[in-house]
Amino acid sequence: MTVRTPHTPPFRDPQLPFAKRVDDLLARLTLEEKVSFLHQFAPAVERLGIAAFRTGQEALHGVAWMGPATVFPQAVGLGATWNDDLVRRVGEAVSKEARAMRARDDRVGLNVWAPVVNLLRHPLWGRNEEGYSEDPGLTSAIAVAYTRGLRGDHPVYWRTAPVLKHWLAHNNETRRDTTSSSVRPRVLHEYDLRAFREAVEAGAVAGVMPAYNLVNGRPNHVSPYLREHLRTWTDQDLLVCSDAGAPSNLVDSEHYFATHEEATAAALLAGVDSFTDHGTDPAKTVARVRGALEQGLLTEADVDAAVRRQLSVRFRLGEFDPDHDPHAATGDFDTPEHRALAREAAEQAVVLLRNDGLLPLAPGTRVAVVGLLADECKLDWYSGTLLHRSTPLEGLYERFGAERVEFAEGVDRIRLRTADGTFLHVPTAGAASDHVRGAEGALDPALLAGRTDLPPLTTDATGTELALVDWGEGVLTLRAPDGRYLSVADDGCVRASADQPGGWVVQETFRLEPHGSGHLLRHLGTGHHVRVAAEGVKVAEEDPEVFELVVTERGEEAVARASARADVVLVVAGNDPHLGGRETRDRTTLRLPEHQERLLRAARAANRNTALVLVSAYPYAVEPAHLRAVLWTAHGGQAAGTALARVLAGDVSPAGRLPQTWYEDDSDLPDLLDYDVIGSRQTYLYFEGAPLFPFGHGLSYTSFGYGDLAVRLDEDVVRVSFTVTNTGQATADEVAQLYTRAVNPSVPRPRRELAAHRRITLAPGEKADLAFEVPLFALEFWDVAQGRWRLEPGPYDFLAGTSSEDIRLRTTLTLDGEPGVPRPVLEGGLNAADFDEQSGIEIVDRTRTTGDAVTPAPDRTGELLYRNCDFGAGVTRVSVEVAGGGTVGLSLDGGPSLTELTAHTPTSGPYDYTTLTAELTADGVHDVRLRLSGPLRLARVGFTG
Questions:
Q1: Taking the CA atoms of the chain, what radius of gyration do you get in angstroms?
Q2: Contact (Cβ atoms closer than 8 angstroms) between residue 567 and residue 628
Q3: CB contact set of 705 (below 8 Å; sequence gap of 6+)
Q4: Would you say residue 1 has pLDDT above 50?
Q5: Which residues of 266-305 are buried (b: 16+ CB within 10 A; e: fewer)?
Q6: What does the pLDDT look like over 151-184, one tens digit per residue?
């Protein structure tokens, strides 16, 4: 008897195009099943044999949160390599480990939320470590490389599906879910959109994640830019995944919508396809979508559009074709190749900022390695758990021998005496396990609880000496002699229980607050003070203990002793990525914390041969003049210490380059919430001051010569070539950088802008011939008068060099472009946000769904300039569309006010516009100046003859 083979449904047929298979599967799903797919944790559909699916697997510089994995340098460190090929190989390794980890733990996802392409516009942003560069071109180049590695090179099936973060104009943690980034059209197109666009157009991006913030008054999760820009850049279906909790924020914190049903519908219609909300519980999201459907706010077709995009990604990942998926058997995990790549990446990320001949260290040098990060291998929120670990101290021991390396951490050693004369005491841990936070993996590590299997602190007559570190702004950590940090678990007890500070809410930080003749010790995670109770030391709202701080040794004393005995001192300073600047917390200053400044001064006073090694997630303002050498590297992952030691020894010549400007002082910085990089002259593109270290800067142990610059126009491409020669004595990498500049622009343009770069390796005497193509569209700017890109005719400089300020070669090419024309305001009027210059203005949403308007900043009078407005043969009246109440004044060419239009009675709401008119006589071409006062929104200005 022959058994009939069941009919294979089309969605299971690998011979059919993905689009037809998606159509078939979508038609088989019920509405309820499709609605359930809209949550991050989409359930299985057993009747169709469809598995559960999760969007989102953190993989910024290695597979994160799911236990041990290869840890590569932080993203800003990968950006500092300026090496596209290296970053592509890192992406390949990360995606292979994701596949291998998923084979043994199906919690590991293949829809990876990486990379971050937010531009490093402001160095005080807490998440600086997550981005690649302040430059959109370098950011997109590194992002394209990483996403290509993550995707894999198979023409059909993807190894992982990368999602770019965080759309859009997101550079502040301060009130990040309620602040609005005011982004003028030129900044939007020339800066913020560019990194996303070039990465998407390269074809290796599966989607994007909107950011928590608002842009121009409208939450990113209901941004019309998702439809107007993002989805026009590619023919592929892009999956838009919300950030965690952001859909609820639309009502709960932003108050943008009155109900969650309205908010959910608006987000879905704007283009959000997967809702990351309420953890693993989809119930609220499903109920909100159902409610929106019942209220007529959504149709089934709207749900289908979102589900289609999710299914498209799942098909590309080979979920429905396990026998055809070339990546299904991938088992590469913690391989020798991955370990070597982690070291190579860490080596290439090291940037030599200053060197007067101290480095590389001579053989036989006696080295003092001092500082709070000298024996640390720090992880950040988006790191995996370390399989291997190398600190600077360990790397130097390995490279130079322990007998020639001396270590002083520089902590303050203290005891805390209670009011009754006893001291805080750390009990012996006994047989408790040596637990490492995160080793078991967690879908949401924010939910990992502190340890309660260790005894709480007590008091006794002698107490325990604790290592105190002040990480800045009075944020302290206290560490027991066994290396464990004081921490507070859910039961409120203080224990020496944490291997490192960490967690979404850090439970290992304290603050000493003066109180009478002593101090209260406040635990920052709970906000409560420490008290001594009969059952042990706890945090509580009442009866805080008053402590006397008894200092056994100041950190600078140990540092001075070690420094005096050494030939060379390496002061390793920087940040702990879980403290200070991090996700949810911006920095307040560029300065090093005072504790680390003390150590640096002590080392320099004891030994003039002092080098500063900065290991940090962001730039610092330091004073390099009295230091023999200064290096910077981001937290370099598992091989950080080995890599640093090899660079210091000269085994590898440093060739990292700064991916962002290092400023001399806080006074050089604009306000953190000022996103107008053009108007406030931000980043190397527009900054007019003298930086501490410029964008692209980085020194070498050898020297390079540049020559033979040639430039020619070939249809729509400028072809540029030059040579680079290693004129020194050591084989080394060089990063050749090509910049462009409009010589006589009609509007503010970048002082210079990176057009191309290439990292090359040259032996002594070796010469490389480099050739680049610069498309003419790369020289265009966004013409607000015409609402499109335009190449301005005139001369353009092409500059080759080793940084944005160290230019070795330059030439000029005159290009034919499209001359500017006056704004035809008689025919088209003025959209208020299409200004040329502004002062005291914020851009806001014209309606909840589309369009921009402008409004005076709080307690400011706003001014707007629109250049070259053509009134033709003449106008006789002006009209303004405004909401709210206030006054719009108009003048021409800087002259006196010609008319004022006032809304004496405010309109009923911010989207309730009214039109005001007044007489105005003008003809010909003039600059129009508007002056706004009062709480009004201006959407448009019109003129009639």
A1: 30
A2: no
A3: 724, 725, 727, 808
A4: no
A5: bbbbbbbbbbbbbeeebebbbebbbbbbeeebbeeebbbb
A6: 999 999 999 999 999 999 999 999 999 999 999 9
Q: How many CB atoms lie within 10 A of CB 872?
A: 16
- The angle that helices 193-201 and 136-151 make with each other, rounded to 10 degrees, is 30
Type of residue found at 619:
P
Residue 876, SS3 per DSSP:
strand
In this predicted structure, the answer to whether residue 439 has a pLDDT above a threshold of 70 is no
Nearest Cα to Cα of residue 221 among 187, 269, 287, 172: 269
Taking CA atoms, 584 is separated from 179, 578, 752, 841, 915, in Å, by: 13, 10, 33, 27, 42
DSSP SS3 for 926? strand
Pairing state between β 841-845 and 852-856 = antiparallel
Pull the structure tokens for residue 351: 């940037």
Task: Reply yes or no: is the peptide bond before residue 529 cis, omega within 30 of 0.
Answer: no
pLDDT above 90: residue 443: no
Q: What share of the chain is helix, strand, coil (3-state, %, to 5)?
A: 25, 30, 45
Average pLDDT taken over every residue of the chain: 96
> Which residue has 């932080």 as its token pair?
74
End-to-end CA distance of the chain: give it in Å, rounded.
91
Torsional class of 872: left (φ above 0), alpha (ψ -120 to 50), beta (otherwise)? left
Cα(272)–Cα(265) distance, integer angstroms: 10
Question: Is residue 444 classed exposed, middle or buried when 0-12, 13-18 and 19+ CB atoms within 10 A define those classes?
Answer: exposed
Angle at 88 between CA 503 and CA 198, to 5 degrees: 90
CA distance 538 to 518: 19
CB half-sphere exposure, 717, CA atoms < 13 A: 8
Write the pLDDT tens digit of every residue in 891-902. Answer: 999 899 999 999
Q: Which single residue is written with the structure tokens 């002083």? A: 408
User: CA–CA distance from 926 to each of 719, 824, 833, 865, 869 (Å)?
Assistant: 39, 11, 18, 11, 5
pLDDT over 90 (residue 437): no
Yes or no: say if 896 and 832 are a contact pair by the CB < 8 Å rule.
no
pLDDT above 70 covers a percentage of the chain that reads 98
Which residues is 533 bridged to in the sheet? 536
For residues 359 and 38, give the distance between their C-alpha atoms in angstroms, rounded to a whole number.
56
Complete DSSP assignment for 544-556: PPEEEEEEEE-HH
Q: Tell me the C-alpha distance between 164 and 142, whole Å.
A: 12
| Residue-wise DSSP of 5-61 | PPPPPGGG-TTS-HHHHHHHHHHHS-HHHHHHTTBSEEPPBGGGTBPPEE--EE-SS
Burial class (CB in 10 A: 0-12, 13-18, 19+), 422: middle
- 147 Cβ partners below 8 Å, 6+ apart? 91, 115, 162, 164, 199, 202, 204, 205
DSSP 585: B
User: In the 8-state DSSP scheme, what is residue 374?
Assistant: T
Phi-psi region of 918 (alpha: psi -120 to 50; beta: other; left: phi over 0): beta
Q: Any idea which residue has 């999956």 for tokens?
A: 239
Q: Mention every residue, 6+ apart, whose C-beta is less than 8 A from residue 262.
A: 292, 297
With H, G, I as helix, E, B as strand and everything else as coil, classify residue 195: helix
HEC sequence for 387-415: CCCCCHHHHHHHHHCHHHEEEECCCEEEE
Backbone angles phi, psi at 541, to 5 degrees: -80, -15
For 884-905, the DSSP string reads ESEEEEEEETT--EEEEEEESS
- Catalytic site positions: 243
The string of pLDDT tens digits covering residues 837-879 is 999 999 999 999 999 999 999 999 999 999 999 999 999 999 9
- Separation in Å, CA 542 to CA 492, 528, 795: 13, 8, 72
